[in-house]
Structures are given as C-alpha cells and as structure tokens.
Design goal:
The protein has about 210 residues and is an alpha+beta fold. The protein has a domain at about 115-210: Macroglobulin (MG2) domain (Immunoglobulin-like, Sandwich), CATH 2.60.40. The chain is about 20% helix and about 25% strand. It contains one helix and nine strands; from the N terminus they run H-E-E-E-E-E-E-E-E-E. Strands 4, 5, 6, 8 and 9 form a five-stranded antiparallel β-sheet that branches. Strands 1, 2, 3 and 7 form a four-stranded antiparallel β-sheet that branches. A hairpin with a 2-residue loop joins strand 8 and strand 9. The longest helix has about 40 residues, at about 1-45. The protein is rod-shaped and about 225 Å long. Residues about 1-5, about 45-50 and about 100-110 have low confidence and may be disordered.
Length: about 210
C-alpha cells in the first residue's frame, strides 16, 4: 500500500511537471510572437493607401518639320573682259613755239566779164520831192557800148519804183544812159539804194549806187 501511494504520488508529480513545462513553452512562444510583432510595428510604418493613378492617354501631336527655305538662284556673274590699263601718253617737252606760217588761201576763180557797168546819181543828196538823174555807163574791153538797154529800180523804204516805168533807155555812142526820176517817195535822211540793169549781146549786167534825200 505504501508502494501504491508512493507510485501514485510519483505519477502526479510527473504530470504537474509536464503541465508546467507545457505552459512554459506556450509562454515562451507567446513572448516571442509579441516581440516579433512589436519589432514589425517599429520597423515598418503603417502602409498608407496610395490612390491608384488613373492612366491618362497622352496624344502626341506630330510637329511638322521646318521647311527648308527656298533658295533663290543668284544671277551668274558674266565675266567681264579685263579692262585695258591706259598707257600714259608720253609727255612732250615744250620746245620753242613755232612761228605761225600763213597758208595761202586759193582765191576762187572768177569769170571776168568782157563788159562792165558803172552807175551813179546826180545830185547825190537831192531835196525830197525834187528831181535827180541816174547815170549808167557800159563799156566792153575798154570801149563804150551803144544801144544797150538800161533801166533803174529805186529801193525806197515804203516801196520799190522802176524807171522808166516800162521799157528801156538805150546808151548813146559814149556808152552812157541817163534816166531821170523824182524823189517824192523818199524820206529825208534815208539812204535809197539804186540798182541799174543793162542788157547787151544777150547778157545782163548789174550795178548799184545810192542817194540820200534832204
């Protein structure tokens, strides 16, 4: 009986030991778990929920490439012929001036008429409104010519007057013709030109004189 009680006490003690051992193991596991959870809370901050980004559609617009500027063709320069360099003219040393020589001028050839007509007025200064006489003398080779036909034209300021008014006056044997006229058309002080015409041998001759009325 004593052995039975002793054996029962031994079994009870063993069971208590096992229970205590099991509680120690459980406690150790809980402690380790708490420490582990505390470490995780200290190391990792609570995660903040980040709103998910809404995807955006990015439309890329194609930028046109810059157009290269159009080059205007430049006119092609036409090559110019080389400009001749003017050669300086030799400087002439001034020498003594040459003495000018008169170059003879050829006189025109004149056809000498075989006859000459001369004329004059008498008086040369008649009174206005008075009478005067024009003389015409025709000679050929120094000889007086008779029967030549003569007339006169007086160039007044206002008009021209012919004497005689019609026809002719013939020269006499001395080759002289006298034609009278009046000076009523003349202005005092003016110079009246008198033209004398003579016709002989199919040729016409002319002479000129004047008078100045008072």
């Amino acid at each position: 009986m004593t052995k039975t009680i002793a054996k029962a006490g031994t079994d009870t003690a063993g069971r208590e030991g096992l229970r205590l051992l099991g509680l120690g193991v459980v406690w150790s596991a809980i402690t380790i778990l708490v420490v582990s959870l505390s470490g995780c809370n200290l190391q990792s901050p609570p995660a903040t929920a980040v709103p998910s980004a809404t995807p955006r559609m990015i439309v890329q617009t194609a930028t046109p490439a810059p157009t290269a500027p159009t080059r205007t063709p430049r006119p092609t320069a036409t090559p110019r012929p080389p400009t001749a360099t003017p050669t300086p003219a030799p400087t002439e040393t001034a020498g003594p001036s040459p003495t000018p020589t008169e170059t003879p001028v050829a006189s025109p050839t004149l056809t000498v008429s075989p006859c000459q007509l001369q004329a004059w007025v008498v008086p040369a200064k008649p009174l206005t409104g008075s009478s005067a006489t024009v003389y015409g003398e025709l000679t050929c080779q120094g000889r007086a010519v008779a029967r030549a036909q003569v007339y006169v034209i007086c160039r007044y300021r206002a008009l021209n007057a012919r004497y005689p008014e019609s026809g002719f006056v013939e020269t006499d044997a001395g080759g002289l013709a006298r034609i009278g006229f009046d000076t009523r058309y003349a202005t005092p002080g003016e110079t009246v030109r008198v033209e004398v015409y003579a016709r002989y041998g199919g040729r016409d001759y002319r002479a000129q004189t004047s008078f100045q009325p008072q």
